[in-house]
Amino acid sequence: MTAFLPATTGPDTLTRALRRVHRAVSELRRGVPVLLEGDAPLLLLAMETAGAVSLAEFESLGTAPPLALFAPVRGAAVLRRPIDGDTEVLAAVLPPALANPDALRGLADPTTAQPVTSGMQPVGAPPGAAAAIALAKLGRLLPAVLAVTPISVADLAERALIGVSAADVLAYPAMEGAGLRIVASASVPLEGAQDARVVAFRAEGSAFEHLAIVIGRPEETENPLVRIHSECFTGDLLGSMRCDCGEQLRGAIHRIAAHGVGVVLYLAQEGRGIGLVNKLRAYTLQDRGLDTMDANRVLGWGADERNFLVGANMLLALGIARVRLLTNNPDKIAGLTACGVEVVGREAHAFASNEVNDAYLATKAVRFGHMLD
What we know:
Layout: H1 11-29, E1 34-37, E2 42-46, H2 52-61, E3 67-70, H3 72-79, E4 90-93, H4 101-108, E5 121-123, H5 129-138, E6 144-148, H6 153-158, E7 163-165, H7 166-178, E8 181-187, E9 196-202, E10 209-215, E11 225-230, H8 233-237, H9 245-259, E12 262-267, H10 270-273, H11 276-287, H12 292-298, H13 308-317, E13 322-326, H14 330-338, E14 342-347, H15 358-366
């Protein structure tokens, strides 16, 4: 569970750290090398976005050969070796034959054509490897990264490459929650909920914006009804039958409106925090026989990568510290409670299956522990 930041972390320090992480994430997404600062600095390049030019620059700036870093389950598949429960990152020396953009994307993405990896030699993961994987995840990239020791850190600065500390990357989930600010608020009458307003939250420099759909005056109500909803483009907007997200969102708004007061938190944490593109990849793996949990893990992600500190701090900023939670997910109750919001009761929020999502709902009940009865 994400912890609060230490009390000694001031707003200026927090802002600077958030900016550095966001800039580094942006560079990785653009396919640009990034310096991970620490006791043993590493130059990083995301396998998913590496192009011929950036790969050549990356190799010229580091000692050879580069290491390929993988989240555990993906690494186990690539390297054909078992993992234990304490493994955070699997590493291997990258053979020259795989040092090209197409092969790297195949190493990162199990939904694509897979390169021959028999020549990859496993090695111990270097210090900072966990932060390297975490940085890729923050960018909603596949958690597979190239890493190399830079020949000269000063040369990286001359090339205007971005640097970020490993400590800031690992602390980012807590920093994002602590750094959230209300940036806009407007009355938005909704069908069946005319007394509604939408409040937008953003952390310093972040590309992600989280929304609160506020109905009535929950800050003036004891134990208002609250729903935490992670955005789902396919379900919420397109009406996808693969999930029950659209029904859950609209059902929550209608139920809270009927009650007269409450909040729906709409968090920018698509696909339980893995992002829309990776969710589509997970769908491809599900079509090949995996369930939703194992599909995420094969991509290199955890079963649930959401940060409930974001939701807790949004509620606290709205003046709400005690809630009745509209949910089937015990992890949401535990998450809010751990982050300073008291959950005084749970309201069930289940919807009937539609034949297409039968297996999805069964997985939520059996493997995620959702209370759907």
